[in-house]
């Protein structure tokens, strides 16, 4: 009931000074100035309208450019990125995964071929994860499977087991068909283009961009305390988990 008095006073002042004119919506009764955020802003009474819904903040956008067999990439994804995603509300963090890294795309007799830093098995792992994303569509479906693959003993041999545990609704046969067909090649070509378009160009993996930007400072902060960084950058109401997070070290990245 407390806001009623000041709102009434403001309404009275508006009536006593008609030459100033009323802002749009402020010609209605004062008790209705809190009916919407636009009207409250026009009437300059937002601070006296506690019932107004808070605007939804944009999520922090994180893109991870990585290789499926790079040890530092696997450790960041398994020990930093996945736990942070689990701990935070969905609306706080939006993640894009781009498995390609330091690979090289070649045109061999009119067909695209890829050479990867950690050999043919890494190329297979990159394509497998790209095809998994393509087939599963939903991030909350495929990310736990990728976590399972990267945390396990073999990225390329545990797809069936990881799908059974985390996403039994995804058909492993469709993922395999994608890997063996033109779709997998097209997905890797897309990842190559996206990776090569980075500005500044990536120098190592994992290569992390935050809200579309990469700096040495952002990279270091993400590697030291990703949870703390996301909590700091998010502009909306923050959950209790953002009360504190400690930094820790991870191995140096896989450089070219």
From TrEMBL:
Q: Which Pfam families match?
A: GILT
Q: Which UniProt key words apply to this protein?
A: Disulfide bond, Glycoprotein, Immunity, Lysosome, Oxidoreductase, Redox-active center, Secreted, Signal
Which subcellular locations apply to this protein?
Answer: Secreted; Lysosome
Can you quote a single GO CC term?
extracellular region
Q: What is its EC number?
A: 1.8.-.-
Alphabetized InterPro entries for the sequence: Interferon-induced_GILT
The alphabetized list of GO BP terms reads:
immune system process
MF (Gene Ontology):
oxidoreductase activity, acting on a sulfur group of donors, disulfide as acceptor
The protein's predominant localisation is secreted
List the signal peptide residues.
1-21
Tell me the domain of life. Answer: Eukaryota
Name the protein family: Belongs to the GILT family.
Reported function: Lysosomal thiol reductase that can reduce protein disulfide bonds. Facilitates the complete unfolding of proteins destined for lysosomal degradation. Plays an important role in antigen processing. Lysosomal thiol reductase that can reduce protein disulfide bonds. May facilitate the complete unfolding of proteins destined for lysosomal degradation. Plays an important role in antigen processing. Facilitates the generation of MHC class II-restricted epitodes from disulfide bond-containing antigen by the endocytic reduction of disulfide bonds. Also facilitates MHC class I-restricted recognition of exogenous antigens containing disulfide bonds by CD8+ T-cells or crosspresentation.
What does the subunit comment say?
Dimer; disulfide-linked.
List the protein's name. Gamma-interferon-inducible lysosomal thiol reductase
Tell me what organism the protein belongs to: Lonchura striata (white-rumped munia)
């Amino acid at each position: 009931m407390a806001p009623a008095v000041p709102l009434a006073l403001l309404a009275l002042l508006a009536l006593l000074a008609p030459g100033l004119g009323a802002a749009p919506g402020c010609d209605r009764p004062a008790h209705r100035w809190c009916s919407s955020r636009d009207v409250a802003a026009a009437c300059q009474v937002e601070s006296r309208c506690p019932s107004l819904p808070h605007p939804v903040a944009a999520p922090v956008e994180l893109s991870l450019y990585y290789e499926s067999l790079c040890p530092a990439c696997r450790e960041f994804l398994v020990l930093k990125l996945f736990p942070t995603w689990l701990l935070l509300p969905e609306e706080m963090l939006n993640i894009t995964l781009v498995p390609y890294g330091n690979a090289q795309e070649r045109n061999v007799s009119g067909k695209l071929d890829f050479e990867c830093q950690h050999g043919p098995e890494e190329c297979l792992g990159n394509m497998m994860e790209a095809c998994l994303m393509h087939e599963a569509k939903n991030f909350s479906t495929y990310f736990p499977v990728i976590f399972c693959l990267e945390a396990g003993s073999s990225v390329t041999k545990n797809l069936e087991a990881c799908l059974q545990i985390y996403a039994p609704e995804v058909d492993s046969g469709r993922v395999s068909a994608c890997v063996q067909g033109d779709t997998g090649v097209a997905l890797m070509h897309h990842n190559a283009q996206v990776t090569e378009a980075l500005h500044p160009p990536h120098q190592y993996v994992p290569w992390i961009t935050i809200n579309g930007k990469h700096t040495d400072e952002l990279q270091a902060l993400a590697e030291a305390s990703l949870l703390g960084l996301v909590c700091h950058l998010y502009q909306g109401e923050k959950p209790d988990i953002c009360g504190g997070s400690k930094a820790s070290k991870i191995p140096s990245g896989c450089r070219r």
